Amino acid sequence: MNPDPFNNGTNQFSNGASMGSFSTPGNDDWYGGGNSVNNEAAQYGNVNGAMSGPMSGGFGGPMGGAKSGGFTSFGFDKPQDNTMSGGIGGGNGGYDDDYVEPPLLVELGINFGHIYTKTISVIIPTKTIKQDILHDADLAGPIVFALVQGVCLMFSGKLHYGYIFGFGFVGCFSIYVILNLMSQTTSIDSWRTVSVLGYSILPIVVLSAFTILVSLRGPVGLMLTFIAILWCTQTATRFFEAALGMRLQRYLIAYPVFLFYCIFGLITVY
Fold first, then answer.
1. Are the C-beta atoms of residues 213 and 161 closer than 8 Å to each other?
2. Are 163 and 149 in contact (CB under 8 A)?
3. Which of 173, 183, 205, 217 is the most buried (most CB within 10 A)?
4. What dihedral angle (degrees, nearest 10) is formed by the CA atoms of 155, 159, 165, 167?
């Protein structure tokens, strides 16, 4: 009886493997369970390469292979974390999830609460001035008041924007220098000086609104203008003496401030 040619070939194949000429992987090697594959997986540091069963697919296929991704039996495992989901630098792109973008008005330094409080302090001269208002260098109110005065004068037939901003800049700088020369303990910056003088001009701004309807060149108009100038001077002096602690020098502060508001009174009337 002739031997089975297939068995004979298999025996020769096995004999050749035992002689060290060449070797073929067994079933366990093809499916990721062989020693050579396990050694290679351990060499690449992939603990997921070791398969738990003989039917685990080495290529992550439908035979129940490792679900962590690609070529698990050969150490080329796909990364577990998705580093490309948030762009460069990590999952969230390097930004803090708890960070809240501040509103635009806050970034610009516009505080409507302080604007309202300063305006009320100008309207009511006897109102107590808070310390946080004194340290606030808000310029939104002064710019709005200057624009409103220019618009009111424009409707009355006088285009004085250049005078308003020109005299305002020179006058604010002059008073800033005078106050810092007079004060021996503390100093005031230029922004707060402009803020105080700009808010305190509100009575003259209201007076300029009357020029749309009536003329202020008569005795009544001149009297109202003088009262508005005194009102502005008293309010600005209160702010400056509280900010600099110069209660005893308040009349020295009031003199240059009075001259400053006289210029805007004359612009309003004439």
1. no
2. no
3. 205
4. -120
Weakly modelled stretches of the chain, pLDDT under 50: 1-2, 5-34, 37, 41-42, 44-76, 78, 82-87, 89-90
> What six digits make up the tokens of 61?
């296929």
Q: What is the DSSP letter of 50?
A: S
> Which tokens hold the place of 240?
């400056």
CB 141 within 8 A of CB 221: no
Distance separating alpha carbons of residues 21 and 218, to the nearest angstrom: 124
CA dihedral 250, 148, 128, 114 (to 10 degrees): -120
| C-beta of residue 258 within 8 angstroms of C-beta of residue 234 | no
pLDDT at 53: 45
The tokens for 19 are: 């002689």
User: Tokens representing 264?
Assistant: 């805007």
56-73, pLDDT tens digit by residue?
444 444 444 444 444 444
